[in-house]
Amino acid sequence: MLYDKRAVFIVVKIRKCGIIGLGFVGSSIAFSLMQAGLFSEMVLIDANGQKAIGEAMDLSHGLSYAKPAKIYAGTYADLTDCSLIIITAGANQAPGETRLDLVAKNAKILKSIIPQITEYNRECILLIVSNPVDILTYVALKLSGFPANRVIGSGTVLDTGRLKYLIGDHLQVDSRNVHSFVIGEHGDSELPVWSSANVSGIDLVDFCKDCGKCENMSTMNALFEDVRSSAYKIIEYKKATYYGIAMATLKIAECIMRDEKSVLPVSALAEGHYGLHDICLSLPAVIGINGIERVLDIPLDEKESANLNKSAETLRNILSQIEL
Fold it and tell me: Which end of the chain has fewer surrounding CB within 10 Å, N or C?
């Protein structure tokens, strides 16, 4: 257990975080975390040491207008007492390339990173953001030897946020009042859970009928297709996506550090959920100070269950090609 409210001794500094990988995603996450004032100490690590130094300097120069914090470029030894370590290191997704196309390159990078972390810190929570996130979450879990609750992938938290935004925009309601999940692979085989989707308790199908903007779910399905293809479009337009995932990562970090017990669709180890075993994929989970407090089996209809199994099979086929 990372942290027990009944314990007198804490083995990590609860407000110390490490970020490994300072590309667009890692640096955007660092900026988001700094602005939120969530951590009092942040260690930045990158294969390019000068990049980490530059990012630390740039962020630190804004601290006069933010919450007090110590932000610095460091080494793996500086991760010793971090409570949370965020991994974004890896090759970028190129135009026309799927997240799964990245697997060989980024699995190799992760294999070099995890042993360096565990040499100095075996009590932290690992938050994997690199793609393909479900595959790499599983790799990190196996390589680290950490309990499953302390290895979390950013999963479909961003995809869910995208869907909530598009639905809210279409229906002209606050997206925070839209309740729906995207689950499965963070990628082409992901699926929306329409069967339990609602707007402040009103079934989404009924809400759509009342608002008069669409007669059936075809419009909602079109919005989901926009979600599934949005990363490709953003990469085509601006070469990379980073602001959205930075905000999604911040939300996960907040849930952990503030022990919020919020439900987020993170990439987690399936241990019998929906009949799935020994695979990491996005499922709604309660997130708190110990990481994944529990994975929830939300109701799925027959089609959703079949699509979730197909998504898991897609990931399992990729995993079979990786040596751990």
Answer: C
